[in-house]
């Protein structure tokens, strides 16, 4: 009998988290739509808000909102978009010179920080 209560309670918590994630994800999309609507209506907004790296950042924020920001995977697209946006805000900074070293470092970090699987252990 205890296991039934536990699974029902666990299922309810999982459902509530999923609902919260859907609401947050929907809010991110509504906010993006409102910004686009304001831009089309003639509101004066910063030009960087409509740059292509903002799409990557928005995808990361949407992904994080869908999962209630429980994990850190959403930070990857936000960081990538942020790096490409840095060209616009930091005088003399050019990501082009650093892109390959950043990719190599990211690959190395992903290999080092990858969670171990059961079959990886001998």
TrEMBL record:
The keyword Transmembrane helix applies. Keywords: Membrane, Transmembrane, Transmembrane helix. Pfam families: LiaF-TM (PF22570). The chain crosses the membrane at residues 21-42, 48-65, 72-90, 96-113. It comes from the Bacteria. InterPro entries: LiaF_TM (IPR054331). Residues 25-119 form the LiaF transmembrane domain. This is LiaI-LiaF-like domain-containing protein. It comes from Ohtaekwangia kribbensis.
């Amino acid at each position: 009998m205890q296991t039934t209560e536990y699974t029902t309670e666990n299922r309810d918590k999982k459902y509530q988290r999923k609902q919260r994630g859907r609401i947050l994800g929907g809010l991110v999309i509504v906010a993006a739509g409102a910004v686009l609507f304001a831009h089309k209506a003639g509101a004066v907004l910063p030009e960087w808000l409509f740059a292509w790296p903002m799409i990557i950042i928005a995808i990361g924020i949407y992904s994080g909102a869908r999962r209630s920001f429980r994990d850190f995977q959403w930070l990857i697209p936000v960081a990538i978009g942020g790096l490409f946006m840095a060209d616009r805000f930091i005088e003399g900074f050019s990501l082009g010179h650093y892109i390959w070293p950043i990719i190599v470092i990211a690959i190395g970090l992903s290999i080092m920080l990858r969670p171990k699987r059961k079959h990886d252990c001998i």
